[in-house]
Design goal:
The structure holds two protein chains of two kinds. By secondary structure, chain A is of the alpha+beta class. Chain A is 23% helix and 34% strand. The radius of gyration of chain A is 25 Å and the shape is elongated. By secondary structure, chain B is an all-alpha fold. In chain B, helix 3 packs antiparallel against helix 9, helix 4 runs antiparallel to helix 7 and helix 9 runs antiparallel to helix 12. Chain B starts with a helix and ends with a helix. Classes of the chains: A alpha+beta, B mainly alpha. Chains A and B meet through strand 6 and helix 2 of A and helix 8 and helix 9 of B.
């Protein structure tokens, strides 16, 4: 067994090979390949219904796999029972046994495995120590707060010393403050245990802050995977560009006015007076329709020419503010302001994108580089 | 001042709202109950006044051999029905809960159907099915015992067969209660248990059973009370016979009151049965609660 109190667990990677899942006629997972290396913190992120929880439950063995293979380490576990896969899962609802005490909840799996009493006691107390649950061991789940229940659920996973930890939206039932706190605790726990963790969330902030690797899922496919900042800096399609980053990226329809030496001259639809110079290595033909993406934090207020935005709502957050408005053509725009504290709502501002921070997508939403 | 006024108005509203119930309850339950208690201390006939005779009725009851026979038969019947019906209902509920959608509704309806039938129809059906000459179940009995048995005229068969009829008749309701209880157990607890390495058997004993216990205890208690009040099935199937081997307390009360015109004595029997039910059911409920807490 792994040493739960120490710094390492027997971490193992998780590998999926063209994994598919359908419920009746509905294809939920349409063919997913992925590699989660040992010791990595991987996050599945995507909007609700994208299949991320289903994929996690397939790795856990709680859902049958319709096609493809699942490997944990170099073991094919596609058709193995959940208990034999060496995974532990933390459920969104925590799924604590309400009739058992915290101690018994955490000892449950070891008791089923008929481990000696002394060993069970040691493991449970060690995990309780890590999670600061020692004084609550005799309580029932109903007597605990949401955050404590969450920790018991994690403790139950730790005690099993699994090869892989699976988390299914574990923080979504907590209030905002506690969520931030638990997020940090999870990050620390991962550093401490060094175990492979796969984490499902719809919250892209959680994904960005926790992940070594993010897998963005949509429509049953992995849209893109990579380090959080790689996804932010270099999204491969419009969906990922819009999903990663908060507030979301602005998108504007545009047409290619002309090809330049190192890119294109794009003209925004409904903005006849304005052209933007966008460097591209594979520029589309003149006249082609494209979508330009610009992040709110990359739009800068300027005195020069640019996008003229009529601001109607200003969200002041103290350090930064988000100005919501519309272009003359009617497109919605959000841009970020730092430092400025005067209300901008009702005014017309001119903003210009930072050079090199304009993303171009074709009509199908694929990135043009 | 206004606070007192408001409180008084609330009080008036409350009184107005509960008074219809209180009225009906007083006229049709409280007053008759009082009359039964009062009657049990007299030698009154079924209709009309009687003389106060103190505890004479109770004293007589304590020396009444038929009362002990009846009480014993009642307890025997409880033994034959309460736990078996709960176990059967639990097995059916577990099986039905594995079914999905319409199939589940259909099967549940089939199991519930007998409960809808009036007792006269139920006993008629079973009287025919178990008829000594024509009953379709007689070949089955003959296959086991070697010859047909007139079950309701046989002192060994009569109580168990009445128990079978009763279980068949009332089981659907228990299934319904237990299904509701099973649905209250979140699916992810089973998933967590599966991940923790619990076999289906362990999942039942360590998750389902303890979490279903409050409902099971309720079913057991309701059944105990119901089965102690046994009357209709016996009256219609065997009329207490043969040789009083299916005679129960309520039958004796019925006979004393409506056939022998001993209102006072019948009331005393009713009171004693009432006390037995209260004591036994409270005792059982406490026992079950302790069992559940452990």
């Amino acid at each position: 067994m792994g040493d739960t109190g120490g710094t390492t667990m027997k971490a193992t990677g998780v590998h999926l090979k063209s994994v598919k899942k359908s419920f009746g006629a509905v294809d939920v997972i349409r063919g997913v390949d992925m590699d989660v290396d040992r010791g990595q913190f991987a996050v599945f992120v995507g909007p609700s219904g994208c299949g991320k929880s289903t994929l996690l439950r397939m790795i856990a063995g709680l859902e049958e796999t319709s096609g493809g293979e699942i490997f944990i380490g170099d073991r094919d576990v596609t058709h193995e029972d959940p208990a034999d896969r060496g995974v532990a899962m933390v459920f969104q609802s925590y799924a604590l046994y309400p009739h058992l005490s915290v101690y018994e909840n955490m000892a449950f799996s070891l008791r089923l495995a008929k481990r000696p009493k002394a060993e069970i006691d040691e493991q449970v107390r060690q995990a309780a120590g890590i999670l600061q649950l020692t004084e609550h061991l005799d309580k029932k789940p109903a007597q605990l707060s949401g955050g404590q229940r969450q920790r018991v659920a994690i403790g139950r996973a730790i005690v099993r010393a699994p090869d892989v930890f699976l988390f299914d939206e574990p923080l979504s039932n907590l209030d905002a403050e506690l969520r931030v706190q638990m997020r940090l605790e999870l990050a620390r726990l991962h550093q401490k245990l060094g175990a492979t963790m796969i984490y499902v969330t719809h919250d892209q902030v959680e994904a960005m802050t926790l992940a070594d690797t993010i897998f963005v899922l949509q429509g049953g496919y992995v849209q893109q995977s990579g380090a959080p900042l790689d996804l932010y800096d270099d999204p491969s399609n419009r969906f990922v560009a819009g999903f990663i980053g908060s507030p979301s990226m602005n998108f504007f329809n545009a047409s290619v006015d002309d090809q330049t030496r190192d890119g294109i001259l794009a003209r925004l639809t409904g903005q006849p007076d304005l052209t933007l110079n966008v460097p591209l290595s594979q520029p589309p033909a003149k006249g082609a329709t494209v979508v330009l993406g610009m992040r709110p934090e990359h739009l800068i207020v300027t005195e020069a020419d640019g996008l003229r935005v009529t601001v109607d709502v200003a969200e002041e957050l103290g350090g930064v503010s988000y100005q919501h408005g519309t272009l003359e053509g009617g497109d919605a725009v959000i841009f970020q302001q730092t430092g400025a504290r005067h209300g901008m709502h009702g005014t017309v501002q001119t903003v210009t994108p930072e050079p090199g921070r304009i993303f171009v997508f074709d009509a199908d939403g694929e990135r043009i580089r | 001042m206004s606070k007192m006024k408001r409180r008084r108005r609330e009080l008036r509203d409350a009184v107005l709202l509960i008074s219809p119930f209180v009225f009906v309850f007083a006229v049709f339950f409280l007053y008759p109950t009082y009359k039964v208690i009062a009657l049990s201390f007299t030698d009154a006939p079924l209709i009309g006044e009687g003389q106060w005779i103190g505890l004479a009725n109770y004293a007589k009851l304590l020396n009444d051999r038929l009362f002990y026979t009846s009480l014993w038969n009642n307890l025997y019947f409880v033994l034959l029905t309460v736990v078996p019906t709960t176990v059967i209902a639990l097995l059916i509920a577990l099986a039905v809960s594995k079914l999905k959608g319409r199939m589940q509704a259909l099967v549940l309806t089939l199991f519930f159907l007998p409960y809808v039938l009036p007792v006269s129809v139920v006993t008629m059906i079973w009287a025919w099915m178990l008829d000594f000459q024509f009953g379709i179940l007689q070949p089955l009995i003959a296959a086991v015992t070697g010859k047909p048995v007139p079950v309701f005229k046989n002192p060994y068969w009569v109580m168990p067969m009445i128990a079978v009829v009763t279980i068949w008749w009332t089981n659907g309701f228990n299934v319904l209660l237990l299904i509701a209880g099973l649905r209250n157990i979140p699916e992810d607890l089973y998933e967590a248990a599966a991940l923790d390495g619990a076999t289906p058997w362990q999942r039942f004993w360590r998750v389902t059973w303890p979490l279903l216990w409050p409902v099971t205890a309720l079913v057991l208690t309701l059944q105990l009370i119901l089965q102690l009040k046994l009357f209709d099935q016996v009256y219609l199937l065997s009329n207490g016979g043969p040789f009083n081997s299916s005679y129960v307390v309520l039958m004796q009360m019925y006979r004393e009151a409506f056939q022998l015109n001993n209102g006072g004595y019948a009331s005393a029997i009713a009171m004693v049965l009432f006390l037995v039910i209260v004591i036994v059911s409270v005792l059982q409920f406490q026992l079950l609660r302790i069992g559940g807490r452990k």
